[in-house]
């Protein structure tokens, strides 16, 4: 059963169960054995709830598209009564939820059998997963000396290593797409509000955060998005309605698209040669597929730096709110949170309500500038990150200057200059595993489209997957297990 498990995506595993060739218990047995075998090298999976998963099987899992497939929830969000959480923080270690979130209910209704959580940086801050609550960093299966990304870094590592074929994530500044790039996976961020956020909150980080998934195959991503999309009761706003499902979009041709590709950041700064090579290779592929392909001309006044400064203020305020809510009026022991979290709280303390609203307005103004970009093109292609996956410790969250950690030299924005752009604008974007560096580290390619164009982006991604499948490359590390380096 293990060999079958490792070579199948979530859709194929569900088909085994539907045909009677495997049982949910057998699949869970394999997943738990893989946690025991592979997780020590990765530190990706935490808070196992085998009893909850076995009870769900005995109660007859829902007859959804993923019935019986083992699944992991990110240790941040996805609130569920039966799944305690740390939210990536010693301050909140072992806390329990009194309710099930709508996204969890929809994942459960799809037949997914959740049995644990995956590591996240504290409160989702940062493109690496190195939170003290887990006793050490989360590592990349391709080379364990490198990061698996963040904030859904545990999810990325667990999927890339074959422990599960798909896992829950979330994305407020690239937190699905960054680990997808780092671990050689698919990471799709839908249009703002495409997935539910309730019942406890109406939006995260001023609407920039959204749930998502880390998967090996695009068809798994499409089916997971179809199973969970749509507003929930009382949603403060809705995205443009979709004209077809994500699965249907995969089967549709995208048409001839105006493709623009960037080999610098959108501020004009240089990128790592492997990232440039990834984009140029993808541009040639898209041209071969019949699209109109030209270099991207950065429009005057785009001012990505101003957006990131506003993003930093909004996230600092959100972080301070989360910590103070957990404290319930108690004083904070600084040792209970990371240095970056202390820095975020310190920054938030300097900001007024007017400052926060001004930052939100700057984000929205940037979104309007990005909307104009797509008047002159249909898809923007960049690398997902500015470099291949960073070494563990390079972006360790111990810097108490939150602005410097995010926006200073050697900081997060320099490492990840593209992903947060599309959280700010709310536009759909996807990281696809289209390149590996000379030393065999994954390098994701990032594709983004106009607000609401989720179906067309999925159609293009499917066309690329058919033309340049990444499954065989992914299988190398799944078969072999985590590599040192």
TrEMBL record:
PANTHER family: GLUTAMYL-TRNA(GLN) AMIDOTRANSFERASE SUBUNIT A, MITOCHONDRIAL, TRANSAMIDASE
Gene Ontology MF term list: hydrolase activity
Keyword Endoplasmic reticulum carried by entry: no
Assigned keywords, A-Z: Hydrolase
UniProt KW rRNA processing keyword: no
The name this protein goes by in its record: Amidase/6-aminohexanoate-cyclic-dimer hydrolase
Domain Amidase: 31-457
Family: Belongs to the amidase family.
Alphabetical list of SUPFAM superfamilies matching this protein: Amidase signature (AS) enzymes
Origin species: Jhaorihella thermophila
Cross-referenced InterPro entries: Amidase, Amidase_CS, Amidase_dom, AS_sf
């Amino acid at each position: 059963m293990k060999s079958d498990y490792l070579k199948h995506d979530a859709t194929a595993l569900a088909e085994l169960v539907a045909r009677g060739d495997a049982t949910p218990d057998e699949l869970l047995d394999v997943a738990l054995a893989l946690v025991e075998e592979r997780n020590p090298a990765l530190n990706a999976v935490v808070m196992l709830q085998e009893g909850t998963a076995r009870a769900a099987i005995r109660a007859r899992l829902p007859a959804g598209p993923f019935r019986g497939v083992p699944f992991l929830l990110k240790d941040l969000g996805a609130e569920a009564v039966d799944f305690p959480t740390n939210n990536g923080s010693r301050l909140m270690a072992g806390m329990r939820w009194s309710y099930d979130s709508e996204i969890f209910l929809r994942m459960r209704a799809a037949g997914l059998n959740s049995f644990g959580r995956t590591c996240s940086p504290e409160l989702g801050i940062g493109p690496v997963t190195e939170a003290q609550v887990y006793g050490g960093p989360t590592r990349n299966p391709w080379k364990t000396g490198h990061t698996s990304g963040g904030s859904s870094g545990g999810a990325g590592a667990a999927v890339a290593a074959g422990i599960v074929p798909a896992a829950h994530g979330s994305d407020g500044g690239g937190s699905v797409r960054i680990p997808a790039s780092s671990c050689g996976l698919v990471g799709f961020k839908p249009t703002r509000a495409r997935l539910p956020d309730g019942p406890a909150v109406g939006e995260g980080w001023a609407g920039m955060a959204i749930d998502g998934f880390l998967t090996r195959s695009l068809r798994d991503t499409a089916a997971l998005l179809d199973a969970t999309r749509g507003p929930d009761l009382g949603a403060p706003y809705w995205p443009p309605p979709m004209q077809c499902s994500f699965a249907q979009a995969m089967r549709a041709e995208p048409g001839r698209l105006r493709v623009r590709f960037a080999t610098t950041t959108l501020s004009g700064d240089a990128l790592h040669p492997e990232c440039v090579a990834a984009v140029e290779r993808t541009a040639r592929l898209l041209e071969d597929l019949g699209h109109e392909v030209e270099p991207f001309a950065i429009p005057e006044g785009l001012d990505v730096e101003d957006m990131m400064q506003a993003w930093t203020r909004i996230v600092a305020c959100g972080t301070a709110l989360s910590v103070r809510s957990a404290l319930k009026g108690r004083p904070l022991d600084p040792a209970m949170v990371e240095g970056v979290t202390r820095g975020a709280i310190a920054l938030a303390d300097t900001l007024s309500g007017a400052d926060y609203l001004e930052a939100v307005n700057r984000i929205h103004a940037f979104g309007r500038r990005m909307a104009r970009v797509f008047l002159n093109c249909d898809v923007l292609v960049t690398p997902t990150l500015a470099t291949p996956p960073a070494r563990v410790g390079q972006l360790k969250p111990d810097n108490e200057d939150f602005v410097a950690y995010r926006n200073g030299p050697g900081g997060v924005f320099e490492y990840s200059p593209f992903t947060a752009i599309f959280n700010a604008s709310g536009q759909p974007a996807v990281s696809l595993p289209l390149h590996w560096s000379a030393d065999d580290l994954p390098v994701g390619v990032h594709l983004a489209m106009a607000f609401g164009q989720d179906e067309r982006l999925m159609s293009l991604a499917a066309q690329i997957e058919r033309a340049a499948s990444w499954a065989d490359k992914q299988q190398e590390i799944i078969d072999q297990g985590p590599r040192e380096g």
